[in-house]
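Provenance

Sequences were taken from public entries as deposited. Structures were produced by running a predictor on each sequence independently, with no templates supplied. The record for proline dehydrogenase from Evansella caseinilytica is shown for reference.
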Amino acid sequence: MSSMISRNFFLFLSQNKFAKKKAMKWGPKLGAKQVIAGETIQEAMETVKKLNEYGLVCTVDHLGEFVYSREEATASANHCIKALEAMEGAGVDCNLSLKLTSLGLDVDRNLCRDNMVRILETAKKYNNFVRIDMEDYTHLEATLELLHELRQSYDNVGTAIQAYLYRSESDVRRLKGVNLRLIKGAYKESPEVAMQKQAEVDRNYLNMIKVHLLNGSYAAIATHDHRVIAEIKAFTIENGIPKDQFEFQMLYGFRTEMQKEIAREGYKMRIYVPFGEDWYGYYMRRLAERPQNVRFAIKGLLSK
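Predicted structure for proline dehydrogenase:
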């Protein structure tokens, strides 16, 4: 199976309701337990504590997206608030990641904004930070508009920008001063809006990172690519960019030894720790990102 066919296959599965229904019955057999920190916030906090012991900081994400009712959106916001309260109670070094669709962006924009305000107020009380994950292209403009509105009152909120979109460099320049997670991108997008060749995405990704850093802005560099990490280390040294202006980020369960090595070198290394029952879409997108990730599914199946 070629990498492009593999990617398209898993992206298709990530949105297929029949496949999701079947997969949820199999659960850990798909290998998801290796990259999902349990179903409850308590389980997530135990994972975060262990990661903190290795010098790794974290961000947790209660999995779930594309809710279609006010009740679901409110419940999701409440989960986020409980997660922030749990972090404070556990005394862990961790912040929060979330998706606006899970807070009702597709239901009622004002509802989504009000849910974000409740979450940001809680985070502000605990001196914590909230990251808005970037979703597919259809939600991009609404996400950036809401981010702009929220930042009029809150400075403890940022978002993510995806390198495979043609517009991303201009978005990064417009978002000077905003704490951005810079990523390559994990959705299937049209050639009209997104680069389709990996080499192009890679070049744009490195360019975005350098533009943001040279603008004096904080960059969360989310990658498992050791070549990108090595280049950014060299670039920051050459340009006198301090280590407290950026961090590296990786996903929970991937390249764990490299995570620890980066932390030992004195860089901030943040682990993206997802938890919750609605793990399916997240896991399928991780398999789509890199064909090598399929080994997690195979390993999970063979271990049963």
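The chain is about 50% helix and 15% strand.
Residues 1-6, 9-14, 18-24, 300-304 have pLDDT under 50 and may be disordered.
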